[in-house]
Inverse folding.
């Protein structure tokens, strides 16, 4: 295909001053963000609003997915003080909705689930009323690891399905489509009050019907929110090629269909990523909570 980006995928590059404050804070606290490590196209927009997705457990992943820009190799030792520093940084940024993700740490007995739990607890202790969203690996499907995170009470539990079932073995060979659905079901079984969330990338060769089937599978698993975005190739030599650039009109159609399916929140567009506009979902989540106790937002 023609590798030239269509007009709807051009985005103004932010000036260095736009992101300097957040970047300096992260470096001073020896913290990582998925915004940087995954080369997110929204980094300027989000960092200018002083929002960021913290990436715990280091910045080196034990898995080698064909779409991801995060470094792969032997991770460093676990940093037990990291949860406290994440919470302090989030408080310094004035965050009310904090998103925490991680690299995969397959070499750890608990797959890194304990660090997620400790980070959630640190955030709760440091920022009263904070809404905590986690985006975890699949923990190889270990239920005791999932339970450890669930029992720390995140408000939103995100785990991305990434692509349609047919393409899953190629796109993320060390993960499994059904394992993702099982994790999302398990979270809801363990605590029905936790909102689950998942994300899909388009442009890898999937068909519209496969996208719709994936949405149906996620709804069947009890997922509350879904994000749908365009896959953009991080490098030309190490990552999967883009098969198609999806027109914004089709993203809008998927958003309409997702809402009709009953998702509480659907964000669908070329630049949408897992944590993009997370604040909007938390506001809807808050309204949902208040409505349940009879208070208007």
């Amino acid at each position: 295909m023609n590798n030239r980006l269509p007009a709807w995928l051009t985005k103004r590059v932010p000036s260095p001053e736009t992101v300097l404050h957040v970047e300096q804070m992260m470096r001073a606290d020896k913290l990582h963000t998925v915004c940087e490590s995954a080369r997110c196209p929204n980094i300027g927009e989000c960092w200018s609003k002083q929002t960021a997705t913290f990436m715990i457990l280091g910045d080196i992943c034990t898995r080698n997915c064909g779409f991801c820009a995060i470094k792969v190799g032997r991770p460093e030792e676990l940093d037990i003080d990291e949860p406290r520093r994440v919470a302090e940084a989030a408080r310094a940024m004035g965050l009310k909705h904090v998103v925490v993700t991680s690299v995969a740490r397959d070499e750890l007995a608990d797959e890194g689930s304990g660090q997620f739990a400790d980070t959630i607890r640190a955030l709760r202790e440091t920022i009263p009323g904070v809404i905590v969203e986690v985006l975890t690996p699949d923990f190889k499907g270990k239920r005791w690891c999932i339970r450890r995170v669930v029992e720390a009470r995140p408000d939103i539990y995100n785990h991305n399905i990434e692509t349609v079932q047919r393409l899953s073995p190629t796109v993320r060979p060390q993960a499994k489509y059904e394992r993702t659905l099982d994790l999302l079901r398990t979270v809801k079984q363990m605590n029905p009050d936790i909102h689950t969330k998942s994300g899909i990338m388009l442009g890898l060769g999937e068909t519209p019907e496969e996208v719709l089937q994936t949405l149906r599978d996620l709804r069947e698993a009890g997922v509350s929110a879904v994000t749908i975005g365009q896959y953009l190739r991080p490098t030309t030599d190490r990552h999967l090629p883009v098969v198609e650039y999806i027109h914004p009109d089709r993203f809008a159609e998927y958003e309409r269909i997702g809402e009709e399916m009953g998702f509480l929140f659907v964000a669908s567009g070329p630049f949408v990523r897992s944590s993009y506009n997370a604040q909007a979902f938390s506001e809807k989540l808050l309204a949902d909570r208040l409505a349940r106790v009879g208070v208007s937002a």
